[in-house]
Specification:
heterodimer; A: mainly alpha; B: 5-stranded mixed β-barrel; 7 helices; 23% strand
Chain lengths: 191, 366
């Protein structure tokens, strides 16, 4: 082989190696991103299940004292019973946000009952529910961030060139509800 | 040099090797950038077990390091001093060290065990001696030891500030080594200094395995507290080691309990002059002031880690990547390596063409 042919072959090998590297790296990155989305969702699901298990304890502990707040308790119970891990992600996101809103209402009402707040079991249940709410909020952010990265990657070059080949589809966000997006009713005027 | 080896031939061969080297480093950088950039940042308070990326401000845990070239308190450093005279070059000092630390974000903090970590830290100090051999501005060689406790009370800090150390009288001092002292090396040429470090207060991005503290393997392979790594029956598997231990116990050299072995030193906080309970002292000795409740809590939080506490560390299948800077900056830095790698590929191809041209005799050099 004459030297110039060898140099041309070398150039082809180097360019081919770079191309192969980009293809393999892109494929592996998208697969890993998909796995991270699934893992982030699984971690949310764990926290939702923990909240689902804790809510009856809190409702049971405050039910007798809060007899006049039956609508708040019923709403929490109804939303808790609606929890279904098999539903699509957006529906679960909407239900979770609605449940969080109902829990916030319940915890706000509990604040009006000093007798309840002084009970250690209610206080610890309240703290646990608040902790779980914080965990769910944090993991929802993480999940949405991970979905954003996945959707952006499969929509960009070079992954978009591989998308028809591997059938990658955009994932759904764990979206907030209209109620979450609404402005709080705050009045600055003196009452 | 044989007549048929022209300078172009040598340069071309070097260009191919150097270019391919840059390409390989660029590809490695691209993989690191993908690993960091494709993982979303977890809030520390909501982090779950498994691989995760966290980002926050570094806080010291029990110990701090003192960097060798600028004497800055840090949790990680990598330092190198090389000397060149004429065509020869030698490395006088090459040191890399890290201690455990905490990372705090707006939601909480998590402890990092850096054993086996890969560090992406650009140099903070990169200088060389001047034409007349004068040392660069900013060089402040470490005069004392490399490790110091991170929790110091006021009196200890004042005493440390007022104590004058001879440059070479402490283990870990690099001042004596570089000043041509007893173990030192006289200046024979131009010196280059490079130091990279992570200091308390720096922002870091970490990708690693989040796991409960009790699942962290003991660095020595056996945990005396839990018995991990030992025979389930409590017996030592190796008969030679078992015989040595039995002999040591028979001679009264080896105690069964830390308090018996170390006495007061087994009391938490004793080593830093603030024991959490009253030590047994010689009547002639000055009594140490006991730690306050708040201090005792702080020491307990620092030194005693609950088994279920989540920490960040390397795992068998998940490496630990610690990088200086916010996630976006780290990813940009690593991706730029890939661009440099592509330029390296171009260099290698051009060098190959030049080599081929030279070998085929198309270009004639005088």
């Amino acid at each position: 082989m004459i030297p110039l042919t060898a140099a041309a072959a070398f150039a082809v090998v180097v360019v081919g190696a770079i191309t192969l590297f980009i293809i393999l790296a892109t494929y592996n990155d998208v697969v890993a991103l998909g796995q991270r989305v699934d893992k982030a969702w699984a971690n949310i699901d764990v926290a939702l299940k923990q909240r689902h298990d804790e809510l009856p304890n809190l409702v049971g502990a405050v039910r007798d004292v809060m007899a006049f707040e039956a609508d708040v308790l019923e709403q929490v119970t109804r939303l808790r019973n609606a929890y279904d891990p098999g539903r699509p992600v957006p529906e679960q996101g909407a239900l979770s946000a609605e449940t969080s809103q109902a829990i916030r209402s319940l915890l706000a009402v509990v604040e009006n009952y000093p007798a309840l707040r002084s009970q250690s079991n209610v206080a610890s249940l309240q703290a646990e529910i608040e902790r779980l709410e914080e965990v769910i909020a944090g993991r929802r952010e993480l999940y949405n961030d991970q979905v954003y990265r996945f959707n952006t990657r499969i929509g960009q070059v070079p992954a978009i060139l591989l998308t028809p080949l591997f059938g990658w589809q955009p994932r759904d966000f764990f979206a907030a509800t209209d109620a979450d997006r609404g402005r709080p009713d705050v009045s600055l005027s003196a009452t | 040099m044989p007549a048929f080896i022209s300078p172009l031939l040598v340069l071309s061969a070097c260009g191919i090797v150097f270019g391919l080297g840059l390409l390989a480093k660029g590809m490695a950088g691209q993989r690191r950038a993908a690993r960091i950039g494709d993982t979303a940042t977890s809030r520390i308070s909501a982090v779950a077990v498994g691989e995760a990326r966290i980002s926050g401000v570094v806080e010291p845990a029990e110990l701090l390091l003192t960097s060798p070239l600028q004497s800055r308190a840090c949790v990680y450093y990598r330092a190198r001093v090389s000397e060149s005279a004429g065509r020869s070059e030698r490395t006088i000092l090459r040191e890399e060290r890290a201690v455990g630390f905490r990372v705090r974000d707006s939601s909480g903090d998590v402890r990092v065990f850096p054993r086996g970590a890969h560090w992406l830290v650009p140099p903070a100090f990169d200088a060389s001696t001047g034409l007349l051999g004068d040392e660069p501005v900013g060089l402040s060689l470490r005069a004392g030891g490399a490790i110091e406790p991170s929790i110091l009370d006021r009196d200890t800090q004042v005493a440390a500030l007022l104590t004058v150390h001879r440059p070479s009288d402490q283990p870990g001092s690099v001042a004596g080594l570089l000043d041509g002292g007893p173990a030192g090396l006289a200046l024979a040429g131009r010196r280059e200094y490079e130091e990279a470090r992570i200091e308390p207060g720096d922002v870091v991005t970490i990708v690693g395995m989040i796991q409960p503290f009790d699942q962290l393997p003991d660095p020595a392979g056996a945990d005396a507290a839990t018995g991990d790594g030992l025979d389930p029956s409590g017996a030592i598997g190796d008969p030679e080691i078992a015989a040595d231990l039995a002999e040591a116990r028979a001679q009264g050299v080896l105690e069964a309990d830390p308090a018996e072995a170390w006495g007061n030193a087994a009391i938490p906080g004793f080593g830093i002059g603030r024991p959490v309970r009253a030590p047994e002292l010689d009547p002639a000795a000055s009594p140490l002031p006991a730690a306050t409740v708040a201090e005792a809590d702080r020491f307990a939080r620092t030194f005693d880690i609950e088994p279920e506490t989540l920490i960040v560390a390397a795992a068998a299948d998940v490496g630990l990547l610690v990088s200086l800077g916010a996630p976006g900056a780290v990813v940009a830095r690593e991706e730029s390596r890939f661009l440099v790698g592509l330029l390296g590929a171009i260099l290698a191809i051009v060098s190959a063409v030049a080599l081929a041209t030279s070998l085929s005799g198309l270009v004639v050099f005088p």
